[in-house]
Protein 1
Amino acid sequence: MPATSTLPRDVATLALRLLQRHGVDYADVRIERFLHEELVAEGGAIATINHTESLGLGIRVLVHGSWGFASTPHLTARLVGRAVTQAIDLAKAARLINRQPRPLAPVVPARAHHVSRCAQDPFAVPLAAKIDLLLAANQALLGPDAIKRATTHLDFFRRHKLFCSTEGAEIEQTLTESGAGLEVVAEGEGRSQVRSFPNSHHGALAQAGFEYVESLGLVPGATQARQEVLQLLQAPPPKAGETTLVLDPTQMVMQLHESCGHPTELDRALGHELSYAGGSFMTPDQLNTLQYGSSRVNIVADATIADGAGSFAFDDEGVPAQRVDLVRQGRFVGYLSSRETAARLHLPASGGAMRADGWSVPPLVRMTNVNLLPGTGTREELCRGIEHGYLLSTNKSWSIDDQRLNFQFTTEIGWEIINGRLGRMVANPLYTGITPAFWGRCTAVGRPEDWQLWGVPNCAKGEPMQVMHVGHGSSYARFDGVMVAPAQ
């Protein structure tokens, strides 16, 4: 368990006392200390070592149905008082244009303390040991002249948060995350290819300590990535046409994120939030009605799962972490929600999905860990009976419309499936579909033994933009009748 530093509870007490004097309808105060250590190696040498730390306070108030928010890094009595006044003044100003009531779904005010699981504190590991691992993995990527870029990184995060509300909540949490990854780029034969390990888009992240980084096997993973990126320079593209796909857990991360996670954010479905990821076709009139996928598709938002980058004990409204069904046997049945959006749909309680990426911004409805529940069958059993198809791995690029319907994904690598067996490697495979039709073609989901949980450290939403850490878990999944083509 990592050591934790004390947050100034007297500052939170002062802010709440001032807020209550002003007679606000509701208010909460978040004090957060944030640590981030980043190490990057490129081309066999250390390129970056950064250590950042911030501490501040955010105040959110509800006055006559309108929200106001203010923050400050200066935790003196005078400047905390100024932030209280600013938050209240903004709420009153918003009242001039907002005529809708803002009821909140009920929550039992909690008094709690939570520290995430962490066997080896990453901030206590000697810097020399981190550098040795980073360079060993980076040097394993180097080789022939075709290798043009080799990058490895380590990232460690700690959030120590205190949440207090005028309803009586007082919750302290310390969340530690560790992550690592690598990427190698090769050029030859007039083409460029990339290979990542253990996953693309900044590797892997978990709510755990340095032991998680050690478990990834970065050095052997780098050797495999180097071999595969060189093979991709010679690999043919896939044949264009309708076929059967088996997606591995690394690609299922992006499929879940873009076509289920974002459209089930209830603020999007209500039209309250459209920036960076658009709206949603999964509108309230579709709840409990829309056949989102086949009966094999069961998707949950689970903030309680161990080690998830989207896990916590309480969200940033003081709502307990929970597991919420989003899709059950193919039917759309639930949302990622906040206290306000849950009340808009007359739901009995919030789904506990409100989070802010720091003390200086208000919380938004965010993904937690949006997971496809496992089915049965090994990868080999999912491939059985496929005369010609593809196994695709590791997302390379994506595109999806602003209603989360029409999508296109390219993966870093794929393999032909011929008569149920894996064949030759293919480069730049692309597949496309319409979300409910695609998930409706899901004919099998793999077994629990192959289920993997991945952390995503860069989910963007809102203006000003907030970048959140979320998670996605899946096993292999099979989809019949999908359009595939070579990426241009």
Protein 2
Amino acid sequence: MNDAIVCSASLSDVKYEIRGQLASRAAELEKRGYEITSLNIGNPGLFGFRTPETMRLAMIENLALAEPYSHQQGIFPAREAVVLQLQGRGVSGISADEVFIGNGVSELIDLSLRALLNRGDEVLVPSPDYPLWSAAVTLNGGKARFYSCLPENNFIPDPDEIESLIGPATRAIVIINPNNPSGAVYSRDVLQKIAAVAARHNLLVMADEIYDSMVYDDAEFIPMATLVDGAVCLSFSGLSKVYRACGYRVGWCVFSGELERAANFIHAMQLLCALRLCSNVPGQWAVQTALGGYQSIGDLVRAGGRLYDQRGVIIERVNASPYLSLVAPRGAMYAFIRLDPRFVGTLDDQEFALELLETMHVLVAPGSSFNTSYTDHFRITTLPDPATLHSVFDRIETMLDQHR
């Protein structure tokens, strides 16, 4: 018998529990006939959120133009629409030449880190983080160093701590704002201080802003590119979340700031994008319509909107629970919920998530899968309707009652 194929050792430090073993177990249970309530992924289309009709029509009307490969950076109308949006937000000095369209932000995170890193280079990543960031750093030969966004500080980073972690191998600082998984939205003051840290140490700022228009109450989204001065900023966004078009796989990244210093990096990105020929072309034709049309996300996140109200249900149920606590999310589409300290030593986040799946048929993401040092949080999406959310919390309370 032949030996088994040996996989890459680089995968040993890579985890993505959002679609990992728990999700696989949930799929097994579904095959056995159980109905699983899956709250592990922010996938709006699965919960009845539709992509705006104008975007679908734009794709249909341009299908004949979508059959050939496009420019490796993306079609011009899409890139120009991104430029106009950023200019309207106060970002200056950019053109379509600094915009790259990819198969979702995920691909562009991987390509940009591949273009940037040499083996052993370090990237400062928030904890908790969206685990694709730390995984992509590792897979491209780098090392993720985590700076803390602690629950007792409302998941807001400390710029002084970030600066204390910088060493000779540090190349970049990753900012996820609005944050996944915590829902934190960073103030202008905090972002300005991080931008100043980057400028002092000649670091690239990588700003993941995929939830840019998804903020609640008095929270304000500040584009990082408007604050970075004396450094290079690479901003990421796309159609997946705000425009409820995850399956279109359309994201973009934009270089701004000290562009002369980024010339070699931009050339490296052009090379990598050329090697994969181009990203999904039909979806690109929805970008101009999406960014230039009516911004329906506003109807969803203001008081009375579906996302706002469902977030309110979660806050209400957690506040009423003797077993749970929550820093109310101010942005994005998640709640990062904490188990009561009474469960420390008897029920960590992995055990909680597995038991909740096996006994109550609810799938959540353990907090430690977002690279936390603590094991008492779990993440759910705020996308389900209120009746589903109430049912989920009823089941959580029943399970925790048994552990009390």
Protein 3
Amino acid sequence: MSKGNELKPRIGFFGRRNVGKSTMINFLTGQQIAIVSDTAGTTTDPVRKSMEIGGIGPVVLIDTAGIDDEGELGKMRVEKSMAALAEVDLALLLYTEGQYGEPEERVERWCSEHGTPMIKVLTKVAPIDKELLIAKIKQALPESAYRGRSLLGDVVQQGDTVVLVTPIDSSAPEGRMILPQVQVLRDLMDIHAQAFFCQPQELSSTMAALKEPPALVVTDSQAFKQVASCVHANVPLTSFSVVLARQKGLFKEYLEGTHKIGDLKDGDRVLLLESCTHNVTCEDIGRVKLPAALKKATGKNLQCEVIGGQSPLPKDLSQYALVIQCGGCVITAQQVKARLLPALEVGVPVSNYGLALAWCGGIFERATKIFQQ
């Protein structure tokens, strides 16, 4: 099982101001890690902390502002607290006796509509049984919060050979591999497959050195076309981004949405969602290469916009003809789903960086075939 932060269960604490959310975090962890005050509104923005809870293990705890905050600034804080619901695997809704109304019902309704487990915790009335609460948390946390689905375990077997093609250009980090490449390599090691790394210009010699054709070739999406020309059509080929897209969920929606690229018209707006923040270069995929590939493949004058990190999405997503999500290597499947569901709910198709680049390069069917058999 991967030990990455994205696979730690995320537990969010929600409730009115001064209901005891920060106190509850300190209580569960046995440490003074959250600021506690009698002053209502001490926590103003969601605060995320990686901690260990005895009996559960490593988790990410999310302390939020009061869901009953007032005024213009308070309204913004409430919106941020509600937005935090989208990334949690479990919500703890704290309330006091005689105070369970519209704010609490709003959280409960959101969790019900999105299938997010929720535990109600009555505070400030009687001492809380810590062991009982921890037992309830363990029972409520979904298995997916602990264990990530293998990236390639259903298509690659022990002893198989896999070639990983990793271009090193100005957008590559200095002295290290990018996270998707590391994640795929670790998954192959867990499967006990054999992995061979090379750059695109070394691919032909790498393939020639193998005694038998590899079971799979995985490339960076930007090198799809070049790699495809060097790999025999009988050898399965895909990209790191496509592999991650399948693990993070909504793959069916990605497959359907990618075909909508062919329906784009002049002036259409395309929203690209980039989950990480990084230094932008002239070879940046989301800001440079993908928009250029879309315009070239469609022959249309498209308006491409990029939102980086976890910045808020535009409130009116219906203005976009297509939303394209990156591989999502630094966020959870729950977060990917939360970013894309608002678009799907208003009828906007969604795609993924790797799938979109494969479509633009004319090898979409080949890049996805191994995952549709």
Protein 4
Amino acid sequence: MIISYYWPPAGGSGVQRWMYFAKYLKELGYEPIVITVDEKKASYPVVDPSLLRETARIRILKTSTWEPLRWYSFLTSGDAQKGIPQAEVKTLSLVEKFAAFIRGNYFIPDARKGWVPFALKEARKVLELEDVNHLITTGPPHSTHLVGIELKKQFKVNWWADFRDPWTDIFYNKFLYRTTKSISKDISLEKEVLKKADGILTTVAGKLLEQLRFKAPGQNFLVIPNGYDDELIKSQKAANKKKDFHIVYTGILTENQDYKPLLEVINKCSKINKIHLTLAGNINSNIIQKINAALPNVKVEYLGYIAHFNAIALMKSADLLLNFIFKGADNQMISGKLLEYIATEVPILSIGNPNSQAGKLLARGSHSWMVEKNNKLEMEVVLKNQIKEKARNKFPKLSQWTRVSLTKKLIEGIF
């Protein structure tokens, strides 16, 4: 049984982790049962109906929910969906600061905890009638793990809690104006999950794993990173190639990422080279305006949020792929997008800490770099070299990162 708030048609990279695990568990002879939220009542920042084709053979049970995030979104943006936070907390206006305070202190561990009783009720019905041996809860939202605590009390299941991202140590918690009491309550819930689960899954080793082991010494930990779907990468053809040097960015882009220094470098290079920059993903219009203003000689194209298979085609059409690590999250995560970048064999320029887990990963590639935000000279060298040679990024032992390989590792580790 997999209990996951995010599930197709929800979009974004977070949903893909257990979507692909379920897909390949089914192909490898297991019978996954997914409990998720009814998309008509969920608070999804983006949707991608194209992902539904990956889960067509999976048994999926959907529940109702209570969603205060819709009110949060309306309060901060005037729209029930557009203001749903994604990888950042806006605190510029008094309304945004008030909303952040409410979110951080009245919805612990998160504003989707209203789904817990609905998911718990559905899971109990299945467990009472069927022979389910293994239970997965995956977060964010980390309130999902509270379902695991209750089910573990009543049923003999092998429960593993999957931390796709950190919980109390996540980088944006510092913007939520939490009181000491709220912080203490959140830490207590996290420790309860860490200690009562039969095992903990994480996506990266390094600092995140050290933090979790410190909180729950003696617990079973298994690192299963995000990966890429080999079938999709091979089957999807590149989108139309551009005549100019083509730079591509896909995914979330916020002010919590250091994108501005690289814009200065691209602008400098564009004075003597024809450059086309394509962006796709959930990106605020204010940031798109800033990019256009910073790159007067570059043809900037913003596609908005696009289907996953179209994003792969776009990546494969690029001469250079860009990535920006979230500030404060250098050692906390390696996104599935970054693995897909690697799988395309297109050169990668990422801005962040070279000594981070993601930086060490990129260092293995022949043409992939993690560069500090203030090192504009190195950014310029990379960009000029790629404009000149248009090389491919070769990566050793790439097959270990395929979704099917990672599913086999999951089976060996917890089944």
